[in-house]
Amino acid sequence: xFNIERWQEIFDTINKNKLRTFLTSLSVASGILIxxxxxxxxxxxxxxxxxxxxxxxTNRISVSTRVTTKGYKGLNPGRRLQMTNKDYENLNEKxxxxxxxxxxxxxSWGGQVNYKEKQGSYRIEGVFADQQWIENATLSQGRYISxxxxxxxxxxxxxxxxxxxxxxxxxxxxxxxxxxxxxINFIVVGVYTDPGGSREESRLFIPITTAQKVFNAGExxxxxxxxxKMSDNFDEAVALSAAMSESIDQDLxxxxxxxxxxxxxxxxxxxxEEAQKIxxxxxxxxxxxxxxxxxxxxxxxxxxxxxxxxxxxxxxxxIGIRKALGALPxxxxxxxxxxxxxxTAIAGFVGLFIGVGILELVGPSIEMDFIKxxxxxxxxxxxxxxxxxxxxxxxxxxxxxxxxxxxxxxxLRDE
Amino acid sequence: MIEITDLxxxxxxxxxxLHVLKGIDFSVKEGxxxxxxxxxxxxxxxxxxxxxxxxxADSGTYTLDNTPIKNLNEKIAAQYRNKFLGFIFQSFNxxxxxxxxxxxxxxxxxxxxxxxxxxxxxxxxLEKVGLADWADHLPNxxxxxxxxxxxxxxxxxxxxxxxxxxxxxxALDTKTSYEVMDLIQGINEEGRTILxxxxxxxxxxxxxxxxxxxxxxxxxDRLVNQIKAKAHV
Lengths: 415, 233
What we know:
The complex is a heterodimer of chains A (415) and B (233). Chain A folds into two domains: 4-52 and 277-411, no CATH class; 60-269, no CATH class. Helix content of chain A is 54%, strand content 19%. Chain A has helices at 4-16, 18-53, 85-94, 131-134, 147-151, 161-167, 208-214, 234-256, 271-314, 316-324, 329-362, 378-404, 408-411, and strands at residues 60-65, 83-84, 99-115, 118-127, 138-142, 156-160, 177-180, 184-193, 203-207, 220-221, 223-228, 266-270. Chain A is elongated. Chain B has helices at residues 44-51, 74-84, 100-110, 115-128, 144-157, 174-189, 201-204; strands at 2-13, 16-28, 33-37, 59-64, 67-68, 85-88, 162-166, 193-197, 209-214, 217-223. The A-B interface holds A 4-5, 12-13, 16, 317-318, 320-331, 404, 407-409, 412, 414 and B 49, 52, 54-55, 74-75, 78-79, 81-83, 87, 89-91, 93-98, 106-107, 109-111, 115, 154, 158.
């Protein structure tokens, strides 16, 4: 296939027909450009949604109770449902096979925290040690709450990065004493960061046992959160997780005598099922974008095919001469195919590079909630290149066949 | 060299069948310079196309250099054309975007001859037709006579058994025609077999044998006293 003479001939014809070649290339280049931009944005949407989503572990089940809205078994609506340590322990025992990480939570919405003359209002959450994994938090300094902190109800706390910025702008917070609600001292043992950003990083985590004591909550808890063990098969994991949430929901409804259709009183949220829906949505978006992109390329390819037909028509005489001089039909086919592939490939690469360039240039500045860092990865680029060569060959095929079928006697007939 | 017997060819257009060649028996020995004459419609071009394997006869046999020419598919026809035949056309049929030397080298390219050897051979034949200095010129920078000489060099490049010339002087003025005929005579002197289709009697007189066609039959086949073109240049 590599043959200097043939390449020279291709360059000769292209040189002779600069405008025509340019216009053809333009349609292919813009097709690829559009495809690349669309794919970039589909990956941007994917990145954005993933980031939004992965603030917390994706395989999380979270359980909370509120106030009943419906009467049931002679009980009036408006009852406040209060979970306790006992409920937490029962569920732990019942689902220990499926549970990966577990925590219960007791929280106080607005806690005033002071360090020296600086102060701020933060959410205080009493949790177990596993909270770190359920929350997808990363420690940037120190340690997280430990099992012995919980057993001994120590007055220690892990602060979010935003709190560190507020209260300890220039100091290392580890080991420092902060004052909670003007009466209880806590020692800072760690600083965490969270993919969720500054809102998620404005919380103070303390041992749940300590929280229940200092807020006089007795055995009460506000929320229970688990992550479920993941199996290799995502769909299977989703099904297991959904079954477990459903079962927990049932357990609590029985325990608290809540109407089966009271969706407010008891909430069991299963992120994995949500994740599946959203990943499904991302897949759909990607498929639609590919579809549009491929459609655009087809339009470009038809353009190239059309031009090549005209080229063959214009070169009928030349092809006739070549055949009279002994060119084999296969050589004529290759000549036309190679030109078509060459034009599509070069034009396509130009489109690809411009598209990638635009994404590189504009991408980082696009930071909307659901679009983040649109880029085209290596695999996608390779795929588009393959699409290009194949489509070039397709575009050239019919014209090449026509060229090979030219009869020299007809081509050489003097008009 | 060429042996044809009882050659028939009809063209069917719609409902009417046009019987163009009605049984041609004809042979050419090596080294002959033959002109095929006839008015338009006599079948002389059809005969040349069949000889050139650009067209196929309906019936009859055709043997070229002891090779029976039959059941040609495109591929074999192309190979035979490249191996046996050199074409010279009335309208030169040079490839417009290739310079003289590349045009001459084209049949060698299809013989898979390497580039260096190709250029050497092409240059040799350009020298032979007296156009070595014009090797880098494109066809539209050459005069009609020069174009035809490039075409002749091209026809010679593949060292064919037979040269087939279809009205080689048809697009040239008298003086240039004679120059071209002088070249053709020279090539024939070196022993190459050449067939020339023409309708000009003065050109025919410059060959060694004239075959006259009328309505698809040979009506006259005679040897002539060749008139040397050089005398008229």
